[in-house]
Amino acid sequence: MNPAAVNDEVARFIAASLIVLDVDTQQRPVLLLLDAPVSFHPNGGWSRQLAPRPHWMDIVGRNRDSLFALKEAEIAASRMWEENMPRMPELRDGDRLVESPSFEQAKRFYLDELLMILIEYLEKAELIQLAVSAVGDLRFDRGVVDAVLSRHNHTWQATQFMRSVVVPILNFESQLEQINFTDNLRIRRMSNEEKAAFWSPMDSNLSAYHIPQLQEVSFLAEANYVAPRAIGSSTIMIPSLKQLLTALRLAQGGDVGALAFRDTLLPSFVSRSYASGQLPDYWLPTDIRPPRYVLNTDAATSVLELFGLLTRAKANGRISDLDTSLRRFNQHYSRRFDEDKILDLTIVLESTLLFGDNNELSYKVALRGAALLKDQVPPADVFRLLRDLYKARSAIVHNGLDSRAIEKKGYTAGMSVGDFVTAVAQCVRIVLARYLQAIDIGGSVRKVTESLDSVLVTQLQPDIT
Length: 465
Fold this sequence. Notes:
Largest sheet: 7 strands, antiparallel
Radius of gyration: 29 Å
Oligomer: single chain
Helix content: 40-55%
């Protein structure tokens, strides 16, 4: 490979392209993006500074054909193909793999790569200030070209990449500065600079509506991974990050959650350094301030154990019977209304304690729950709690009652409806943990449920007095 030869031809393409774009931006309107970077302040609070800038992808896109027609584009693409920079991805002709693509077959791939380099150059060069009238003055800067290409040269020649996926953790505080789950997965403190880098006004997965939540974040979950060229790290790492968040929720009460993830290629690019996505099962309501989740040393041990159980259950395929239970458990955190939480938590218990059963549901849920939790919660308390849970669930589903009406009806085990939901959620945590432990030693959801009935039968004693 000869990076210097490729760089020279790409630089000539960029210089020629600027002439085309200069003419276009003087003759046609320029679409502006309202960039508004966020600053998070050490003493709390945040601020934004609006900064309109040209939509370079739109400008380059509308000139695609003219740019592709440049002789400099043909020469640069040909040189990239000759030097295999970047490495050509798999090319197929129908179902047949093309082993050694010709230049004509590979040409479009390299031309598209040139356009992305051009967009990155325009963004990094900062040639356009705030005034739209300045768009007609595009100057070539070889230093900026070389800075852009130095990063591309690294990734063009690589067969695999280091990637980093970051998830800011909402409503979370830890007495430990860092918790390591694996060699490449951890929870650690998040700086204000990292918050500003995470939030992007051009990212459709986050908006200004989410800034106050991000401002209050103290910690993040972070996963680093060496990924093959064709595989994004989020494909590999997001399941582990979700298991980490689920383990936090299973370990103790307190509403902990996440908004989104950001997947960054290292070293980072200007235009194409990251991908992002939402984590809807881990959202928290934005208009409610729930109890803050505080992780201490003892709880951290439980979180690590639960993460191990979830990871092994996923690896051996036994997690499938608990998929619905875990999803509904996670979703109850995002509900604004207690009646919706009651329905989610009831479904969790039905899909575990009633696995494969369709008769005498409320009685069996209460009885099996009491048996399963007997060494942690008095059985009579669990029985009453879960019997009332079923009464509340039926009142919601069949009579359309809301949480206040349920409390007035006396279907909350003598508690306020908020305390009732909290108590049920804690029982659900214990139930899910017990099922995960059983799966970990070769059991199944069905076997656990059957064993509970067996225990109840063997403990029956005849009354002979």
